[in-house]
Each structure stands twice: as structure tokens, then as C-alpha cells.
Amino acid sequence: MEIVGAFNPGVIRYESDVVLLLRVAEAPLRNSRGEVAAATFDPSSGSIEVQRWAPGTKGLDLSDPRIVVFEGRTWLTSLSHLRVARSTDGVHFDVEDAPAISPATELESYGVEDPRITFLDGTYWINYTAVSQHGISTALASTRDFRTFKRHGIIFAPPNRDVTIFPEQIGGRYAALHRPMPEGLGDAAIWIGWSRDLMSWGDHSFVAQARHDRWDDHRIGGGAVPFRVNAGGQDAWLAVYHGVGRSSHRYSLGALLLDGRDPTRVIARSRAPILEPDAPYERTGFYGGVVFTCGVLAEGDAVRIYYGAADEVTAVADLSLEEILSGMS
Fold this sequence. Notes:
Order of helices and strands: EEEEEEEEEEEEEEEEEEEEEEHEEEH
Distance between the termini: 47 Å
Helix content: under 10%
Largest sheet: 5 strands, antiparallel
CATH superfamily of the largest domain: Glycosyl hydrolase domain, family 43
Number of domains: 2
CATH topology of the largest domain: Tachylectin-2, Chain A
Number of strands: 25
Shape: globular
CATH architecture of the largest domain: 5 Propeller
């Protein structure tokens, strides 16, 4: 296997460090025959299995670099795990030698991806995407020290991803934004769910969807964990999310302003993206034209966004909260 990307990190401050939980994507080494390959985790043996196809195989669909489609079945071209990186300044990171969370079950056989970190009740809760032949689901883990991790299993069944858990209870319950992915009827949109124990989620309701003739007119989904702001004297939550343009196919970032007591109510939304894929490392790469965040550090007016660029590298951007809020309506 070879590493083909380190991107889409969750982020949190822990003691004196800024901690990233990186998605590290690996792919089978290429061979001299130029075969197409995909790797999966086999929970029964605890090993990685590699499937290969000869070039030009009839019925082989490689139109999307992220997947291999053959005879009605889909594989991923990479297998991801999660790895801790630490920094004292938030820019220069030391990546740990061993994975923090790797595929371990049948429901993670295609990898674990896109972590978000929420600090609640003295514990760091990590929700991440679990991918398998059964679909795309969301799992939960926890840690107190970013050295040992406890897994709690699936909290949102397939197809569901882009989950962000709010960093405090609201009205005596935990809340999480999530994105069901309807097929055949309806469009992917941001919803909210509620829980008493972080494991069982219900009372779901719709929050926001793609907007016609706007920069996010094709598809939207959650991004970073929401954080509290004062917006013109009003208590609110700010959630950085991703949106995709129908004609451009670009993944950009915007912000949702949600009512502080009732986050089902959208107060305002970014008129234009707050971050777009403009730099060379954002426009080109494994999957070009993408900026995608799972983690933000907000301190005063400073909003530091850690994000994946082109599904390949991790980048950071510093924004002003005041400017973000002024660009919403």
C-alpha cells in the first residue's frame, strides 16, 4: 500500500496542542501490468484484500477516480484510516506513527473517513464515516487523551454522512446535523437529529437544502462542528458547511447561522462562498475543484478552517468572523 492522501481532518485544542485527526488514504501499489486495483478490509482475517482488474476490462467504469464500478458493484480506489497529528502553533504538525482508528468491522470494510471532534462532558467524541458494501453510515468513538480510543458503533445507518455534533446540550438534549442521501426521490440536504445519550437519535427535522441559481445549487452537506456566536446581539450557532455547484461541480464552503435556542431555524446563510477552490493545490489533485472541511477553531474574530484540498492534502485558511457574518443574509 502507498499513501495517496492526508486530508479532511477534524480539529480540537487539547491541553497546549492543536490536534488534528487526519483521514489518511492508502491505495494498492501499482504493478508493471498497469492493473486497476481496490483494497478492502476483511474483518474475519484482520487483513487487507486487494482486487485487481486488467486494463481495458469490459464493463469496467473508472469515470470517477474515487471509485471502481464493475458488474454492478462499487469499490473505493483507496482505503482510509484516521491518524493523530499534533502542533503547538496550529501550522506545523507532527503526525503520529500509528493509526488512531482503523477499519475494524464489516461496516468499515471500505474504510473510515472524515472525522469530526466534539468536546462534551469531559470527553472528546469523534464521529466518522464508516464505508462498506452495505453503504455509507456514521459511527462514534471517544477519547480523553487522544492516545486510547473507545468505539461505540453505528449511530446513523446508511445512507447518511456529514454528521456534526453540537458542543453542548440544547434544551436538555444533544443535537447533531446530518445528511441523509435519498435515492430516486428527494435531494441531499442538511437535517438535525436529537439524542439523550449520543447513541440513539430521533426527532429528525429538515434544516437546509441546495438553493436554486446560487453557488450551492446542486448539493450541500455538513462541514465543521457548529460554534456559538453573537450575531448582532442575537445568540446563534454558526455552522460551516460545503456546497456543490450544478454547473461548476466545485466544492466550496459557506456558513449557516442557526438560532441559538432552536437550531432547526436558519437565521441567515452565506450569499457567496467563504472559501472556494482557487489555489493550484485545490483546483488539481486526486479529485480537483474541492475544498472540504471537518474542523474549525474559532477564537474571537479569528476563524481558522482546516480543510481537505482536492481530496489529497490538508490546508488551513484564516478568516474573520465579522466578515463571514457580514456576508450572510
